[in-house]
Amino acid sequence: MSQDTRDARSGNAKKHVPTLLKPYQEENTMKLKIQTLFVVITVVSLVVTAVILYSFNKQLHFFALRLSSRSPSPPHIVFIVADDLGWSDVSWHNPNMITPNLEKLARSGLILNYSYVAPRCSPTRASLMTGYYPHRIGLQYQVINHGDRSLPLSFDILPRKLKNLVYATHIVGKWHLGLCSWKHTPTFRGFDSFFGYYSGREDYYTHKIGKIYDFNFNTKVYNDTQQQYSTFLFRDRAVDIIQQHNPSVPLFLYLPFQAVHGTLQVPPKYSNMYSHLNRNRATYSGMVTAMDEAIGDVVSALEKRGLSDNLLLVFLSDNGGRPLKGGYNWPLRGIKNTLWEGGTRAVNFVYSKTLLKDSSSVSNHLMNAADWLPTFLAAAGSKHVDLDIDGVNQWDVISKGAQPVRSEHVYNIEGRAAIRVGKYKLIKGDPGFQLGEHQPVFDFIGRGRRTANGWIAPEDIGSEKTRFGKPIAKRYGLFNLHEDPLEEHDISEDFPDIVEKLIGRLHHHMNLSVPYVKSTPMTKEYSRLNVMIPGWCDE
Ligand SMILES: *[C@@H]1O[C@H](CO)[C@@H](O)[C@H](O)[C@H]1NC(C)=O
Ligand SMILES: *[C@@H]1O[C@H](CO)[C@@H](O)[C@H](O)[C@H]1NC(C)=O
Ligand SMILES: *[C@@H]1O[C@H](CO)[C@@H](O)[C@H](O)[C@H]1NC(C)=O
């Protein structure tokens, strides 16, 4: 526009200059030069005035817009997800852990003390991306294995929705939501870039799962990892994105680390910090500390690039820890892959310098993994957050301390199921074992059934504190989580009316379940490639 204005002005000037000059041409050249100079100065000042007026007007317009809509520019969103990080594996729950960067962010932000996720990876990630409970997506059972199942294409997922709000969108780390066709992969679903792996786990250095190499940059196999430890590969890529990001564009950086999922691997520098502990716990704890350091580096990069003043940073674990692989949920009951609180109550906090009314505090409001999608959209200024989904917009609760918006939470509906309504939790079936039509059970249960249903303390807290619990005795168990957050007392026999009421709510949700998504296992042709490459199914 300003270019046009300038062109119009100079066009005007060109027209007039010759006629003005004509009469003086016959007189002396000195006069002519002075006159020319005068004209040039006039023209230049006219142009400059026009430009100033134009830009001033534009600023006024910009101000007016900001005032009228009262919408500040959308915040940069950095969403960090840790894999299999247990409740007692961060320093603000267990002072033996070394996580200074995370603790600083958590303590100066808002700790979400009752934030729930599904008991396993794929169901949680499916909820994060869609805003639905896993049983409404068809990913409620097991996990996606070698891309045998995929998050259905009928869902319009979070990065696409943020992209529509002009966000730049990047995923760095673990996808684990399918790859049987290219259309299921991150850059076809709304991410501008993808740097990471498709599957659920792999070697931290070779980036292989079994014989299959799985590391990618956008749609290409990336074979320049040079056996680098994945936590630092992902940190470097995240820092790179931040350094190259134009601060005037809102950024969505989804950073689902491989850490701290098994296999247990970390550079010795980090496990040595815990050399007094048994090998599994020392390695696992070192993995947590390495991730903490990487997150510190990402936050520094955000500061340096000037992105931290209008930043919303969320840190979340995708499910509980698994004692067999060094992660613990003490004092909560149960482990990963169980419907106990230890499997489903996530380490979670929100950090922002500018967007939180109540910072340095703790919220005990219920939050569910499905809530992040509408919450992020609301934070981004979207007018379309009242979607007909399971997730509810918690942005005012988080940013302004508004009244709670969620009183009910579905843990998962598999063969077994659990629901929380207010302070009561109803469990159907054995929360420690995955039962029902869609077996088999994975070996997530460490030393067996007792571990899965127990209160298992890490060695650094004191293994004498470990207690092995029994599964609930009846078909349904009931717990009062306000009085009994550790699920020690099944009160179902004392409150049959509450049990009935919660069964009704559970049935309501069970009736909305959709079948497990169809399996389209990797073909022989593809598995022979020994590289994780999408594309063996049509859709
Ligand atoms: C967080 O929840 C636990 C119960 O599981 C409770 O003991 C603790 O006091 C809560 N924290 C705060 C600050 O409310
Ligand atoms: C890495 O990828 C490039 C391009 O795809 C290929 O030319 C090269 O052979 C690969 N190197 C290895 C070690 O696989
Ligand atoms: C669930 O569906 C069953 C059978 O279709 C029906 O009998 C029952 O009333 C439904 N329950 C709820 C709570 O909607």
What does this structure look like?
There is one protein chain. By secondary structure, the protein is an alpha/beta fold. It folds into two domains: 76-407, Alkaline Phosphatase, subunit A; 417-512, 2-Layer Sandwich (Arylsulfatase, C-terminal domain). The protein is built from 15 helices and 16 strands. The chain has helices spanning 2-25, 29-69, 100-108, 121-130, 134-137, 158-164, 230-244, 268-271, 279-304, 341-344, 372-379, 395-400, 449-452, 496-510, 524-527, and strands at residues 76-82, 110-116, 168-174, 193-197, 208-209, 212-213, 216-217, 220-221, 251-256, 311-317, 348-351, 361-368, 408-413, 417-421, 424-428, 476-480. The strands form three sheets. A ten-stranded mixed sheet has the order 8-7-4-3-9-1-10-11-2-12, sandwiched between helices. The chain has a four-stranded antiparallel sheet with strand order 13-14-15-16, with helices on one face. A two-stranded antiparallel sheet has the order 5-6. A hairpin with a 2-residue loop joins strand 14 and strand 15. The chain is globular and about 105 Å long. 48% of the residues are buried. The model is unreliable at 1-27, 60-70 and 435-447 (pLDDT under 50). Bound molecules: 2-acetamido-2-deoxy-beta-D-glucopyranose (NAG) (3 copies). The site of one 2-acetamido-2-deoxy-beta-D-glucopyranose has 4 residues, from helix 14.
